[in-house]
Amino acid sequence: MFFNKLNKIAATALALTSLLAAGAHAQSLTGAGATFPAPLYQKWFQQYKAKTGAEINYQAIGSGGGIKAITARSVDFGASDAPMSDAELAKAPGVIHIPTVAGAVVVAYNVPGVGPGIKLTQDVIADIFLGKITKWDDGRIAKLNPGTKFPSTGIAPFHRSDGSGTTNIFTTFLSEVSGDWKDQVGAGKSVKWVKGLGGKGNPGVAALIKQTEGGIGYIELAYAVTNVIPYAAVRNAKGNFIYPSVASTTAAADGSTLPADFRKVITNTKAAQGYPITGFTFLLVYRDSKPELKKFLQWALTDGQSQADDLLYAKLPDSVQKRALAAVASLK
């Protein structure tokens, strides 16, 4: 019995030593950028630490901030929902894009007496944010939603105040569906808004909508659900009104085609059941990244994908996942 106890103690000590050794060898990582995927990323980082001991410190400062940080090499990875432009890449030679998941940008609102799922067309959304439709009982909104009684409450549009990949997805969509929007505002991480107030990050815009009667804004799906903010079904290119969900985000992602470097915004999908304001989100990494980052990326693109649905993101399509894993394998 004495020797059995000694064997158990020795086995426990060996296991503890192995665990401590694994933690000692694991590198810490730092990242910064998009708020769009932050709920999922934080869960990933917690689970990866539990599995490997590697600490990942992520600051959700917006896609624009993430691009600046990775360009300055002040972090190990950046995160952005907006692909870097050619000009931005020229300042950060060696950076590649790794898609991680897809997500939906929803049109969320706070209208007294009106529940979730109102229908909005592309042109109506554009004209609300252009300041052409200013009351919730406007005839164009009412016509799309027979049986719904809208109040005469004024519409208060909200947008991002920081450089934002969520803004890039939303404004790219509007530029594709509205000539007036394309001519007057255009697309980008930061644009000159015609009307409305800005909030910092997805959390900031969600807070503005929730606390303002008549408010409307664009936020990632998870933030609307978490904050219990109603959001609209949006008409897609096939003429169908599609409610944002994991299924409709997946349909849009599956129907997309990405170039070799993955740099594309996939809004205005042609998939019949696809939600039209959908985008991939990316991690921005240098080819000579730390070995631990390569390990994390491989984990995120495989085991981590199973966590996406629970937090209302869409897993990568199989073809995109395989290409992303090949890109990670090419890291030095």
UniProtKB/TrEMBL annotation:
Keywords: Phosphate transport, Transport. InterPro entries: ABC_phos-bd_PstS, PBP_domain, Phosphate-bind_PstS. One of its GO terms (molecular function) is phosphate ion binding. It comes from the Bacteria. One of its GO terms (biological process) is phosphate ion transmembrane transport. It holds the Pfam family PBP_like_2. GO terms for cellular component: ATP-binding cassette (ABC) transporter complex. Residues 24-303 form the PBP domain. NCBIfam families: 3a0107s03. Belongs to the PstS family. This is Phosphate-binding protein. It comes from Capsulimonas corticalis.
